[in-house]
Amino acid sequence: MTWSIRWKVALGTLVAVACGLLIAGVMTVRSLEQRYLAQFGEALEAKTRLVEYGFQPLFLSSLSRPTPSSLQETARDLSNRASARVTLIAADGTALADSAVRDADLSAVENHTSRPEIQQALSTGQGQDIRSSHTTGERTMYRAILMRPSQDAPPLVVRVGFPMLVLDREIAELQQRLFLAIVVAFLVALTLSVWLAHSITKPLSDIASAARHLSAGNQTFHVRTTAQDEVGLLASTLNHMAEQLHAKIDELSEDRAQLLAVLTSMVEGVMVLDSRGHVLQINPALERMFGISRMEARGRPCTELFRHPQLNDLVTAILRSRTHHQDEIVLPLSGRCLQIEASPAGGERENEASVVLVLHDITELRRLEKIRKDFVANVSHELRTPLTSIKGYVEALLDGAKDDPAASTKFLEIILKQSDRLNLIIEDLLELSKIESGGVSFKEEPLELRSAIDRTLSMIKPIADKTRHRLVTTIDPSLPPVTGDEGRLVQVLTNLLDNAIKYTPAGGTITVGAKLAPSVGNAEPPARAIDLSVADTGIGIPEEDRPRVFERFYRVDKARSRELGGTGLGLAIVKHIVEGHGGQVWVEANHPQGSRFVVRLPLNPTARSLHHVNEASRA
Ligand code: ADP
Asked: What is the 116 CA–ligand 1 centroid distance (Å)?
């Protein structure tokens, strides 16, 4: 059983007070009793001396001895005067007179030799004893003195007995009063000890309950106390400590919130490891990169979690050397390229940040880099091919072919053709670069798609006729007007139709279509768009090449493209113009044969972002 401090203090004080009172009471009673007895004894002695004096005359005459009746009478008389029992005893213990006994019974009174006071008086001259009287049965104080009536007469003992009744009553009264005083003192002590215990323990229990609130996460810790003592000091110290604790917690919470905000909003993946290489923290970007959740990652060894040999090697190396490391890894499933910066964070113990890994997704960067490199290689190659040809034919002319009219005409025609091609490439490149850099502004005018299609078809028709291609249109008559740059859209259609003719064997069918696009997504109102398509029955494009044909200089079949006079830039220009109108372009297989290019142009003006060519589209 555990006792509260209040009870301990109260009971402790009470026990101490009760013991004190009890000891004081007992000692007081004892000392008073002794004093009473001493006083009583002194008074009794005086009475005894007076009684002895009263008996003296009876023994003055040496001739006659006093008669038993005279002795009895004197004893009774002296008893009345002294208000005490008077006994005269001979040296042999025989009672000669006794005021408490009738004359007739005197001879039957027991011999008194054995009485302690008599023995004392006979040996020392005086004696005292307190006991119950054989004769009266009352508790009595006896005082005896030795009396020598004459030189030759045997000594006698005068004994005075005084009942202790009055004294006992007085002592009992005294005890009662003392007991009452002790009870009152005890009650006062009880009240005081309870008050004292309360006044000491109340602030302590206040502190305890406030501490309980604090540990339960309650922010309002405050101990109210008016005490000026040590407990008050403790309370005010705790209040001060709690304030500081709150301030520190607030500061830490703010820091943590800021850190979390930074970690959450970071595009880079962040992973914090402890000294054993176990994951302490990962941010949402890293969750997305690896498709894992923070909950499943926390506390697990990094090597077991990711199972990427290169990443594991990097973690092992930094845990061993504690120096900055950097590496690039490719994720096997997604093929994404990640650049990892691993820095030591200083923590040496378990659950302490020891290593921080920052993972940058550089897939796009690497892709753009590759496109740029390919572009430089392609553009040099594309420019060098006609130039080499021109140079070769010019050298052949200079070497003497100019003197041969037939050969020189043929060579000059080739030089002209290659110059035209060079010119075409440079024009297309300039055009592309102008669109990319935002140097071309697209008009925003309402236009009828049908008229734009008709205009293009009329331009293309002579070429199509040459190769006996059939041009077909399937245009929805209820199409709403589109907002855009008619000249540029005609350029798009021309490029697509030109390709369709080029890559479709003679006698094929080319279909130009326009219809409302099926609404996609669940936007309210649904985003509306028009699908403009050019389908052919030509050689088609393999599925893996479809996403890449819009890259600059990308060709499915380089030799064929060059032979057909293509620059490899037509579709890149198409893509940029379409995206400049806020639209999209893609290619799909045409059934049963050929390719189908689709240009989706938005009708909803808010969805449009004219003149905007973003970095990602610079392909
Ligand atoms: P090119 O000037 O070589 O035609 P483009 O940018 O217009 O360049 O086209 C890129 C490549 O896409 C072409 O080299 C060709 O391989 C392929 N291509 C474009 N249109 C078609 C089509 N209608 N049918 C088959 N292949 C096509």
From this structure: 150
CA of 367 to the centre of ligand 1 (A): 21
500 lines ligand 1 (CB under 6 A): yes
Q: Is-same-fold flag (266-361; 366-436)?
A: no
Ligand 1 mean position, distance from CA 600 (Å): 19
**Which pLDDT tens digit goes with each residue over 365-378?**
998 888 788 888 88
CB atoms within 10 A of CB 410: 13
C-alpha distances (whole Å) from 73 to each of 51, 99, 159 are 13, 8, 15
| Top-tier CATH class for 366-436 | mainly alpha
Pairing between β-strand 355-361 and β-strand 269-273 as defined by DSSP bridges = antiparallel
Rounded Cα–Cα distance for residues 496 and 534 (Å): 7
- For the chain, which residues make up each domain, given as ranges? 6-169, 266-361, 366-436, 445-618
Nearest-angstrom CA–CA distance, 74 and 58: 9
> How many A from CA of 235 to the centre of ligand 1?
85
Backbone angles phi, psi at 589, to 5 degrees: -75, 140
Closest by alpha carbon to 158, among 39, 75, 40? 75
Ligand 1, atom 16, lies closest to the CA of: 556
- Using CA atoms, how far residue 496 sits from 289, 538, 595, in Å, is 38, 13, 11
Ligand 1 within 6 A of 394 CB? no
Centroid of ligand 1 to alpha carbon of 466 (angstroms): 20
Pocket test for ligand 1, best of 501, 504, 549, 587 (most atoms within 8 A of CB): 549
Look up the CATH superfamily of 445-618: Histidine kinase-like ATPase, C-terminal domain (3.30.565.10)
- Give the number of other CB atoms < 10 A from CB of residue 1: 2
Q: Is the CB of 555 under 6 A from ligand 1?
A: yes
Query: Ligand 1, atom 23: nearest CA belongs to which residue?
Result: 500
Domain 266-361 grouped into CATH 3.30.450.20? yes
Buried b (16+ CB within 10 A) or exposed e, 533-569: bbbbbbbbbeeeebeebbbbbbbbeeeebbeeebbbb
Highest mean pLDDT among 193-207, 256-270, 361-375, 433-447: 256-270
Classify domain 6-169 by CATH number: 3.30.450.20
Indicate the pTM of the whole model: 0.51
Which candidate, 477, 495, 464, 486, places its Cα nearest to that of 601?
486
Say which residue, 66 or 605, is predicted with more confidence: 66
| Ligand 1 within 6 A of CB of 122 | no
Q: Does 602 contact ligand 1 (Cβ within 6 A)?
A: no
Element (H, E) at 97: strand 95-98
